Amino acid sequence: MTGGTGYIGRSLAASLIARGHTVHVLIRRGSETKLPNGCKAVPGDALDQATYREAVRGCDTLVHLVGVAHPSPAKAAEFRAVDLVSIQEAVKSAVYAQIKYFVYVSVAHPAPVMKAYIEVRSQGEALIRSAGLDATILRPWYVIGPGHRWPLLLLPVYRVLELLPSIRESARRLGLVTLREMTGTLVDAVENPARGVRVIEVPEIRRFAARQ
Fold first, then answer.
1. 99 close to 59: Cβ distance less than 8 angstroms
2. Which of 114, 103, 102, 100 lies closest to 142, judged by CA?
3. H or E segment at 15?
């Protein structure tokens, strides 16, 4: 797993370990204390697959979660330098290590206000497809959880928008999901590998949690 010390990564790693999975997490040296108990640390650089591709060999799934924290339209250059380069390198490492299955967190689209972010994540999706990897791609918009709760103020607005036939589909596609919903969907993606490329949008992420 890349990005395993981040907001979603820590939650996912802890959940997978609790379910009996062996989880290897790519980290920068000195970040070991950020890992959930039970993770196996893999020192390396997410922007250079040569630093970790040998550690990927023998794993059956690569989960890629690296990305610029708190995305905003002002971070277009960072998206290209971090989000794009890291997915390029992760796909290369998966191909090199003959990984059978890839899980990628992309983003819901279209949404003009986040054009650069969506362009980079869409390029990531295209890289996975062109590499011929079996994969699950998740497309959340905003994941609510500890330290990420301000969008709760928008829930009344979302409820109104979802009632309007002309924009209902867009409002649902760009809706909010919780960290619990996101983590549960990612666990299911890991445990039930796709054949080909499966894309999971916001409504399906929500439905997954409702089935639990």
1. yes
2. 114
3. helix 7-18
Q: E-assigned strands of 46-109?
A: 61-64, 101-105
pLDDT of amino acid 172: 59
For helices 115-130 and 85-96, angle between their N-to-C axes, nearest 10 degrees = 10
Question: How many angstroms from the chain centroid is the CA of residue 20?
Answer: 21
CA–CA dist 72, 79 (Å, integer): 10
| Contact of 93 with 56, CB cutoff 8 Å | yes
- Quick check: 189 and 134 in contact, CB under 8 A? no
Give the span between the Cα atoms of 53 and 28, in whole angstroms: 15
Nearest to 2, CA basis, from 56, 38, 69, 54: 56
* 157 residue type, one letter: V
Give the strand pairing for 134-139 and 61-64. Answer: unpaired
pTM equals 0.86
Tens of pLDDT along 146-186? 766 555 545 554 454 455 565 556 655 567 888 999 999 99
Q: Specify the amino acid at residue 89.
A: E
Q: DSSP 3-state assignment of 34?
A: helix
Number of CB atoms found within 10 A of residue 152's CB: 10
The answer to whether the CB of 136 falls within 8 A of the CB of 122 is: no
pLDDT in tens, 69-78: 888 889 999 9
